[in-house]
Design goal:
By secondary structure, this protein is mostly helical. The chain has helices at about 5-10, 10-35, 45-50, 55-80, 85-125, 130-170, 175-195, 205-230. The longest helix is centred in the middle third of the chain and has 42 residues, at about 130-170.
């Protein structure tokens, strides 16, 4: 096996640090997303009741953002593990998507966390016409954030996994890892784009919950653990 497809041996410190950051960030992000729960955004009144009963809503959103930042830092570090010109380009494109996606995601989740918390408190204290106004405000807010949140998922959890998955496959990493990254990214991409054009096409929890909050973090944990283990291994070859 050529040295260009053996980055695990050539750059063990890079792989170890990058693997820890990617896996650790995925654990933090996924954990906070599980605690977030599935808000019924298609029903404004039900969503307000959900927010009213969710006092830790802003904390969960801040924690999710911190997890994504750590996860993104891992991809920045791992950019140095590629040496072939094509994989370097793919890695750079993936990193650019991750950094852009983090910015969009942070804005989206900050608005959602702070605004949702305030709406929940106002809902608890309101009555009569005041509640009608809050239902309208919540419906408008969720409508505006739907597009932003889905675009954030496309840039942050779809394109990077596809690009990085291809780069991993070209660099001699396990085909199963490469295929899983490409598959999760592609399925999430199709589903997110479909919801952008028709929010009632299927349940949003499939994209926000199953794909972006579970499948993508699990793949990232797999990647991080593999890189960390191989960074300390003596064997140069990577099993499929």
């Amino acid at each position: 096996m050529e040295a260009s497809v053996r980055p695990l041996v050539a750059q063990p410190n890079t792989l170890k640090l990058g693997g820890l950051l990617v896996a650790g960030g995925a654990v933090v992000f996924g954990g906070f997303r599980v605690f977030h729960g599935d808000i019924p955004a298609d029903n404004a009144e039900a969503a307000l009741n959900f927010l009213q009963a969710h006092p830790a809503y802003p904390v969960i959103h801040i924690g999710s953002i911190l997890g994504v930042l750590v996860w993104a830092a891992g991809f920045v570090v791992l950019l140095g593990m590629f040496t072939d010109p094509v994989t370097v380009l793919l890695g750079r494109l993936a990193t650019a998507c991750v950094l852009t996606g983090v910015a969009v995601y942070a804005v989206d989740f900050t608005i959602d966390g702070v605004g949702g918390h305030d709406l929940g408190e106002q809902w608890a204290a309101a009555s009569g016409r005041g509640r009608d106004d809050l239902i309208l405000a919540a419906h408008t807010g969720f409508t505006l954030l739907r597009g932003v949140s889905l675009v954030a998922i496309v840039i942050l959890f779809c394109l990077p996994l596809i690009l990085f998955g291809v780069a991993l496959g070209r660099s001699g990493y396990p085909r199963s890892l490469s295929a899983a990254g490409i598959g999760v990214g592609a399925v999430t991409l199709v589903a997110a784009v479909a919801l952008i054009f028709d929010g009632d096409l299927f349940a949003g929890v499939i994209v926000y919950g199953l794909l972006a909050s579970i499948a993508a973090p699990l793949w990232s944990i797999w990647l991080g653990v593999l890189l960390y283990r191989r960074s300390t291994a003596n064997q140069p070859d990577l099993p499929d």
